[in-house]
Amino acid sequence: MTEIQLQDVSKVYGGDVVAVDGVDLTVEDGEFVTLVGPSGCGKTTTLRMIAGFETPTTGRVGMGGKDITDLPPYRRDVGMVFQSFALFPHMTVKENIAYGLRVDDESHTEAEIDARVDEMLELIELPEIKERMPDQISGGQQQRVALARALALNPEALLLDEPLANLDERLREQMQAELSRIQKELGVTTVFVTHNQEEAMTMSDRIVVMNEGGFEQVGDPDQVYDDPASLFVADFIGKANVFRGRAGASGDGLSIDTGEVTLRAASTDGVADGDAVGAVVRPQDATIEASGVEADNVLSGEVTLSQRVGELVEYRIDTDLGEFIVVEQAGRGGTRFGRGDRVEAGFPADACRLLTRESVIGDEPVTAPAQTEA
User: Fold this and answer.
1) DSSP 3-state assignment of 293?
2) Residues 77 and 90 in one domain
3) How many domains does the chain have?
């Protein structure tokens, strides 16, 4: 069993710059876990402590039941792929993949090395490029070769530091699928770092949302998206309309008074009458019509943005209350609205989730004035 354990791990630079602040995490055997968050949140530092390139200021790093906190990188059974791929430019693809086998503590015959290289090239579905130099292959092929090199020694864990960041959008989507396929085929325990929340949602068994050196939420993609632990998570993972105000009783559920409008919400655990709250509504949970929207909550206004986003059309509506809401609708069929059109946007009470915290980090209550944000 190749579990990765972080126990109360912190990293402090210069005595007072806290990069990672007392985090705990267990990555199960064969699991794909993604660390995601804004720049400077501590995700790469966390990965580097697992790899051994950084030593924790406090806490313990374990792998496979062993304490590896003080082991150097070359004594940890991990493969790592960097954002730059870091292929040796003077070596062929074959030589790049074979490099780790040649410098390994265990001796390997030339026949064993050749067989492993061929196996890795078959795994990444690129057997024909074996004799090419790195500058003779595409960025996507370089990414796959870097992955093959990391996997050639059959590591206990695979660590990936934004390996798709330098690829164009279409190639990045293709490589997401390829990377997921290879990881599942091998069953290797994997920790992936990205700032791209769509990558995290697409590829992961679980997501760790980081903020200011701490963990805002750990859960599977559906949990993090549908049941965010804080307004930070709701806003960072996917798009969200956030209405800030104060909760009040409303029949079987709750309402939120923003100072401009009172919106109905379904009952939410942990929220009481009078609490300062933020109400989260996902853009795809709202509907838009010229008039006559049937919904628990209806806001009228003018379309100020209408743009195609993949299969969806995204609208920004400046409401008559001086606030705005973003709505996403299917792009095919139905009425397409344009800038300047008068519309109504509506959403049901059970699509309006109330949260009492801006952020789990520090457990701060919502103190912002009533305001609607998208």
Assistant:
1) coil
2) yes
3) 2
